[in-house]
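Sat 14:20. Reprocessing the chain from the morning session after the first attempt stalled halfway. Input below, unchanged.
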Amino acid sequence: MINVFQPTLGAAELDAVRDVFDSSWLGHGPRTRQFEREFAEHAGLTPERTIFITSATAGLFLAVELLGLGPGDEVVLPSISFVGAANAIAAAGARPVFCDVDPRTLNPTVADVERALTPATKAVIVLHYGGVPGDVAAIAELCRRRRLALVEDAACAVASTVDGRACGSFGDIAMWSFDAMKILVTGDGGMLHVRDDELARRAHRLAYHGLEHASGFSAAGKGVPHRWWELTVREYGRRVVGNDLTAAIGLVQLRRLPGFVARRREIAGTYDRLLADAEGVRLPPPVPDGQVSSHYFHWVQLDPAIRDQVAADLLDLGIYTTFRYAPLHRVPAYGGGGHLPGADEAARTTLLLPMHQGLTDADVRTVADSLRKSVDQRQAAAGG
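Finished this time. Tokens:
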């Protein structure tokens, strides 16, 4: 099977895990803090405000709590977005308000976001679709003017930039995903960054049971009372902190990340070259000048009458494709409905092709050739 997503792991990651085993310290510790520091340096962030957590979804739930969102509040987010963002909003009693997206880029424009704002809007969440930054700089400026919090769900954008500035650095709060299908993987895991110092300190507490100190061991001899095992709880939290075992994998992956992204860029270019003259296949728009994509997704757009049939043909040939993310304004749990033509068009036409750094040139040619053949056959059948 040629998978649509697939991590790249090897001896270096195994050696890092072995070192953690040998240290006898698997939990939140020195490697976690090192991963936070090195990731912060990678993204141009402040290490003290950067927290390794169990998932980007945990970061979304923390963001909603940190911003104090609840009943009567609205949060605008693109309909083509991951379900975790809408769940975090709705679980707090706030209302997710879905904005439209450009049907070709699948990212919201600043105009899409602005149309969805109401007096009840308290925050905006953006996703960088497939790793392409989109209008994040303009959306950030809009949020500043309107005094709205901006949350960047940078799950797809671990190496994406706008004019040299990392995605995730535009928002008040940002999170990245390192789950098993991402570019940089730790099995499960994510990184959270909080711009405001006090909110960042609160995020540290909420991520570990509301405790002022993560453990008695870390507090011993550091200015705390002589009974360092006693608890200081300011508010109710949970346990969503990362650990040294997964952080050790993340440190190796972070060092390999530039090579991963370079290979994905090559693959994207090869797909575009091989499919440039394919009738009935629309390629993704070029990445705008000044922007760098992580190339997490690579997609084509097909006639909706044949899109699902083409996906089935490819699966029969051992090529797994998919579509992400299903339009959330069509999910009854969030209220459903609404007229968002760009999101609906994108959901009917878009197909994600296999995209990961483990693909060989032969794999890419197989996918492109199989796609062309299936589209030709399905179009001929539909025309007949």
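The chain has a mean pLDDT of 95.
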